[in-house]
Design brief:
CATH architecture of the largest domain in chain B: 3-Layer(aba) Sandwich
CATH topology of the largest domain in chain B: Rossmann fold
CATH class of the largest domain in chain B: Alpha Beta
Strand content of chain B: 15-25%
Number of strands of chain A: 12
Oligomer: heterodimer
Distance between the termini of chain A: 37 Å
Strand order of the largest sheet of chain A: 1-9-8-5-4-2-3
Largest sheet of chain A: 7 strands, mixed
Number of domains of chain B: 2
Helix content of chain A: 25-40%
Number of strands of chain B: 10
Strand order of the largest sheet of chain B: 6-7-8-3-9-10
CATH superfamily of the largest domain in chain B: P-loop containing nucleotide triphosphate hydrolases
Chain lengths: 285, 264
């Protein structure tokens, strides 16, 4: 380790963040204000998630960082290096090996267990923001459980597009009480929000932390005649052949050729390691 | 409903000694009246006479200094709405109450389609069937004489008169029992006003609504209101049956008001 305090933040700040996390866990889905610190990265690059991770990590933890499911993208690599340097914790790319996973916009495909913590980076924690711009008013709406407006948005979706076109950051209701923005994960991941691991959400610029304790009931909002549907590209992964994973579409050339690959790189690699192969798997290998 | 029925019923709304002051200036002073089911009450007076203050205090938009506003709730009978908790009052204001603003922009969501605007109250009270909500929105557009083909247009693409009619549809869709109206015809040209009044009169009769209408336009109360209160400087100076007050005004101010109407 170096001259940094463990995990960059000073101990008082980490205590403050832990208090917010505990309150968030006590009131699932409620946005707890916290005194977000300046971090050595721009807002929008995961300052909220990094602060929550910093307050959560212990020297024995193993950290995994993913960005859109991938371990090898800029955001994931730099945050992983950040904690390697400031906390000296072990890091991994394997979902099952990690005790703390910081994620941007995805939930790993592999099922998480009770001894894991999933930390989300959240750009805009307020699901009502684009419907009602006044924070004073949205807080009142949460307090009084006035969520009719949320369905107005879904109504508008159906009337304009024929079905609910919201495909990410799909609003959910937590334990029949708070409506929550699950961060911009694809709605494919929404059913996975009911899981064994602790889920923590950090929004740095907006100075909010919220949380889902293990096995919390999370229901995606919908209409009776337009029920929620977790969608993905109708395709198997071209590298590992998985049919149950969320896919990225990659344009290969100017002739319109494309491939679909798992957005969760660890999931895809571990499947290929045990011999699964997709349409383009041989070439890629 | 005949007048005899009304007498036998419990008042829908009982206002007792309602007062509101802005610092040392008086908003309204010790206003009391009863409103029976199916009755339309007009409140007239010049600008600054306290009529909007009174309306907003009754509708719970701001807290009065003194007084009671007792509403005959469906569940628990007569209750003082000023003593209700905030969630209860807000629930009331999106189910049994409606508020029609003078400027439709204040009462509508301008960035949401007409159908969404009408559907909002339905969804706020638990409507979760898209087809039903849309059917009701279409039905209400028809009732306020807006073509069903405009259901997905935003109110910003509507004329002033249409916006006002949309606002009325949005408010009445949950079948409220009491409607507060603040200058519902203000800022509209006379032919549009006439159609709107015609529409309102039809809806009030058809749905058996009770309404409190604040206006400075005596023609509006003549057409819509059963009873009339005249306000000046925060006080009610005269009240009675509309025709009686307008045809035989007793108070000097009412006489001035009635004689000030332009005869065309």
């Amino acid at each position: 380790m170096s001259d940094y305090n463990f995990a960059y933040l000073d101990e008082q700040t980490k205590r403050m963040i832990r208090r917010a996390i505990l309150k968030g866990l006590a009131v699932p889905g409620y946005q707890v204000p916290f005194a977000s610190r300046e971090m050595p990265m721009p807002y929008g690059w995961g300052t909220g998630g990094v602060q929550v991770s910093a307050a959560t990590l212990t020297p024995d933890d193993t950290l995994k960082v993913i960005d859109q499911g991938a371990d090898d993208t800029t955001n994931a690599v730099s945050i992983r290096k950040f904690f390697e340097r400031t906390a000296g914790v072990a890091t991994t790319e394997e979902t099952a090996q990690a005790s703390v996973i910081q994620t941007r916009h995805r939930i790993p495909e592999a099922e998480l267990s009770e001894d894991q913590i999933l930390v989300y980076q959240v750009p805009i924690p307020e699901p009502l923001r684009f419907l009602e711009p006044r924070e004073t008013e949205t807080r009142k709406m949460h307090a009084l459980e006035e969520y009719g407006l949320m369905h107005v948005k879904l109504y508008e979706d159906i009337s304009q597009h024929g079905d609910i076109a919201t495909s990410y950051a799909y609003p959910v209701k937590v334990e029949d009480r708070y409506v929550m923005d699950p961060s911009p994960i694809p709605k494919f991941d929404n059913p996975k929000l009911e899981m064994a691991a602790i889920q923590l959400f950090g929004a740095g610029r907006e100075q909010r932390i919220y949380a889902l304790p293990p096995y919390t009931r999370v229901v995606s909002l919908d209409f009776e005649d337009f029920p929620f549907e977790a969608t993905k590209a109708e395709h198997p992964c071209d590298l590992c052949g998985a049919e149950d994973s969320y896919l990225d579409e990659v344009i290969l050339d100017d002739a319109g050729n494309r491939m679909f690959v798992c957005s969760d790189t660890d999931y895809c690699r571990s499947r290929r390691d045990v011999g699964h192969t997709g349409r383009l798997g041989e070439q890629a290998a | 409903m005949t007048r005899d029925d009304r007498k036998s019923a419990v008042p829908l709304l009982q206002v007792r000694n309602l007062a509101k002051q802005y610092g040392r200036r008086i908003g309204c002073r010790d206003v009391s009246f009863d409103l029976y089911p199916g009755e339309v009450m007009g409140i007239v007076g010049e600008s600054g006479s306290g009529k909007s203050t009174l309306l907003n205090a009754m509708a719970g938009h701001h807290a009065p200094d003194r007084g009671e506003v007792v509403f005959d709730t469906r569940a628990d009978g007569p209750r003082d709405t000023l003593k209700m908790s905030e969630p209860e009052r807000r629930m009331l204001s999106r189910t049994d109450w409606a508020f029609v603003h003078q400027h439709a922009r204040e009462g509508l969501r301008m960035s949401v389609s007409a159908g969404g605007n009408i559907g909002e109250r339905l969804m706020a009270v638990g409507g979760r069937h898209y087809g039903d909500i849309r059917a009701q929105a279409a039905d209400w557009l028809g009732r306020v004489e807006i073509s069903e083909s405009r259901i997905d247009d935003r109110p910003s693409a509507f004329s002033g008169g249409m916006q006002q009619r949309l606002q009325i549809a949005r408010n009445l869709v949950t079948g409220p029992r009491l409607v507060f109206m603040d200058e519902p015809t203000g800022g509209l040209d006379v032919s549009v006003q006439a159609r709107l009044l015609d529409l309102l009169r039809g809806l009030v009769r058809e749905m058996g609504l009770s309404a409190i209408i604040v206006t400075h336009d005596l023609a509006v109360v003549r057409l819509l209101a059963d009873r009339l209160m005249v306000m000046k400087d925060g006080d009610v100076v005269e009240s009675g049956l509309t025709d009686q007050v307008l045809d035989d005004p007793q108070h000097a101010y009412t006489q001035l008001l009635v004689s000030s109407v332009l005869q065309v």
